[in-house]
Structures are given as structure tokens and as C-alpha cells.
Amino acid sequence: MRVLLTTINAKFIHTSLALRLLYVATKERFDVSFSEYTLKEDVDNIADNILSAGYDVIGLGVYIWNVKQIRELVNMLKERQPALTIILGGPEVTYEPEFFLNQWPVDYVISGEGEFVLGELLDVIQRKHIIDIEGVSSRTNISKTVVRANVDFISLLPSPYQLSEDREQMKNKVVYVETSRGCPYTCSYCLASLEKGVRYFPHTYLFENLEYLIKNGARQIKFLDRTFNLNQAHTKAIFDFLIRCYRPNLSCQFEIYADLLRDEMIDYLNATLPPHYFRFEIGIQTTCEAANQAVGRKQDFRLIAGNIRKLMDGGKVDLHLDLIAGLPHESFERFIRSFNDVFALRAKEVQLGFLKMLRGTELRQNATLYEYMYDPDAPYEVHSHVDMTEAALQRIRRVEHTLDTYWNSGRFTRTMQHIFDFCYMERYFEFFDGLATHIYENQEPKKCFQLEDTFRQLDDFLQSNGFDLSPTLRTDYYHCFSQRPPGFRPNPLDKKTRKRLLYEIGSDKTFLARHHLTRRMVEKRTVIDPISANLFLLTIFPEDNQGIITLEYKIEKPSM
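RE: above sequence
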């Protein structure tokens, strides 16, 4: 009996730890292999690829980002090979197995952590016995159990992090690591709230695998723990190990509950951490206390903000702050306050997400209480509720685009600082909303713009509101390149004039010597912009890519 474990990842750089865990838990007893696909791949081609290998059993990981494609795949597989046994697992199917068994042509659904349950199921399928396993549902037997695996037993399995299949591609993909399972919090919109208790993997197991990943060239390690800093001793031990094993060009990302950060930990990180080695994702979600209470979320925003500022003052940890639009009791006006509260911290990234009514969550079950309207298909995103209109949420979605483009991209750092220090002081949402409206009214909102278009749009918006930040925008624009780019704006100098001016400057041996330049650098790697009639800004892009050089050059008798 040949078995394939597979899933469809959102992006090529993503990897599925779940597949690898299932694989190492079953490969000694069964003929099992695993493979991964991406959303960009044609589902028909995926089906052909799977069927051509002659598998008897297919196990599929189902998530909100791939459920549509997995359904298409399942239908194709069963249509072309009806005798194929199909098993579903993953968070999307865990809490409503009967729905998928009734709606999809599948044979079994595993609810919960399937490392050891899958082996039991494969054994019974192979023996052709009647299946009665906790956590496994079929059309004739729906299990209400959500199984949990013993993490100590998982640590005794062959390592899912040291597979030979992954060694070569480790440098090009995100490596996911879990040091614990479970979540102590009860946020009613989150599936993690349904997992009671937190279980930790042994440190010896973790250190051995982390050392392997670091020594073998991993570039980005993302820790899957729901609240990485829940257990202070555990957190400190992992941080200590990672700092001892620091390697350039490696970054580690953690989900951190900022309320739990202590001054000793912050001081320790600020004192010992190499810059940009750690990235903390902090889910603030809202500063509206009524919304927090409605979803069972407890947080102290004043404490959170203070801890975030201390981390930012240290300059070592990159911070990613999360907001959710569409929570109960939060109107459009109150959301603006939440946005401004969080953005005022000026973290490197502010992620604006939208509430999703996930299968199995308490909030989905109580959706009528708040008059929620949401998409019946994954990802089940909210359209409106009693306090937030559909038009208001759509307006916030446009803000999400400008936030990602102009803040989270990191391409407009100088311009953004000037805007929020002098032009839109403490009116962060108002800026992004105004810019989004400007773009929406003047362009196709879904159009993919070239980089120069995004700069010109911002310049147009600022100019229309009486702010001339063109010089700052030009500096940000040129810092996006390592080679001489197209001009930021249509250059008032025609090509012939630009060439002649650069030739004249390249002939000025005194200027070249003073700034350690060569004629070639001036003529081939320099952009020239007029400041006034005879004063010019030179932006030079050295061949060593060590950062651009900006100089002013005055020509007494300009050749115009």
C-alpha cells in the first residue's frame, strides 16, 4: 500500500511541518512519501502528478488558504481513480468533520494532531478492518474527539527538521519550528482557544534540531508557538541558545504576548541580541476594551505599549504589530482610534487583518448575536456586523493596501517620518485613508503599479494637500535601487542634455579626486536632477552596492 502525504502551500517559500511530522511518524511502518505544491500551480497538473505515481492512499492537509483548491483536487482524484482512499486532516476540517464527509468525496477525516492516529488508521485500512479510532471520522462513524499527541513521544521520532529531502532547499525557504503546542488564552475568534493547556518539547530535542538548522544554512526560522514567551524559563533557554549560535543572514520570528515581557528580558535582549536577528510578531488586535471583552481577550494596552517602546529604544528586535478589523462592538470610528493607538508606536510593520469566522470557533457559533455577515466560503472573512457597515470595512480594506505599500514595504522611511512628524501628526489612519481614497478615485484600485508609480501617486496626493516632499521622496526612491534607475519624475533635462552635463562633470578632475570618483562612475552610474538653474543633485550608484552617494554640483554656465 503506497501512501502520499501532501498539501498546497500558499507560497513556494513555505514548508509544511505537519507533513514532515506525519511522515517521520509513519515511514518506518508504511511505504509513505510526502510532497508539497503551491497555490500558483494548476490543480489539474497536481492531480496528474499524484495519479501518475500510483498511490493507494492520499493524505491531504487542509487550511483556510487552500481549502478551495484541495476540494477541486479531491474531486479530480476521485473522478479519475474512484478506488483511491483519501484522508483529510488539518485545522480547517478538524472541528466539522461531518461537513466535509457529507460534501466532499473523501473517506476519512482526522481531527487534531495526527502523528500517531494516522499510523493506526493506515494499519486498519491495510488490514481492511472496521475503523473505530478516536479522532478519526468516516461517513458511518463521526468522532467528536480532537486528538492531541504526546510531544515527548514525538521527540523520540526521527527528526522532521533533518530530512535529507530538505537540506538543499533550506536556504531558500522558511523553516517552521515548534517548541510547544497549545495556547492558554481563550480568544473566541481563534482555533487555538480550543486547545486547553500548553505542552513543551524537551530542550535537548529542540537544541539538537536548532543547531542542525543553523549549521546547515537556514535563512529564516519561524517559531509556531502561539505564545512563545508564556513560560519565562523556557523562553530564556531558547533565546540563550539562539544567541550563542548566532550566524549572520539568519532571522528568527516569534509570536510574543507583549503583556508578559518583563524588564529583565527586554534589557537582556537589548544588551545581547545582534540587530535584526529576532522578529517579534505581537497581536494587539484592538485597543477597544468592549471588543476585547466580547471575544474573551485580556490585555493591558498601556503595559503593551510601554514594553514595545522599550524594545524599540533598544533597536535590536524588529517588531510586527497586528490589528484586526471587524471585531464585535468596534465601530468604524472606534477602529480608527485603535489604528492610531497602535500605529503611534511606529513599529517596523503594522499588519492590518480582517476578522474571519473560522469553523469551530465560539464567535462563529455566536455570529447572529452581533448580526455578522460573512463569506460562507474560506477564508470566511467578515463583511459587516451591527456596529460596522460593509462600506466601512471596504474602506478599511483600501487602507490595508496603502499601509502595506507605503509603510510595511520600508521603501518610504524618510518620507513617512516627515509626514507623521510634520504633516499628519497623530492622524495616521487619516493619512492612509486619504491616500487610499486618492488612489481609488484616480486609478484602478486593483492595478499592479510599477515602483515609480507608487512614488508618483504619493507625491500627487501630498501636493494636492499642500505638502511638497518631492526631494525626500526622490531620496527614498533612489535608495530602492543598486543600479541607476529610471527617474523618479519625468526629468526636465532631455537625454542629450543629461549626457552632456554628466560628461562635463566627469571631466572635472578636481571634483572627481575630492570625492574619490571616476569618470565612468559619473557617466554610467549617476542620475542627475536639477535643483536650480545651475545647481544639480548627483545620485551615484557604486558598483560595490555599498549604498548610494549623493552630491551637489554647481555649473557656472549650464549647458541647457
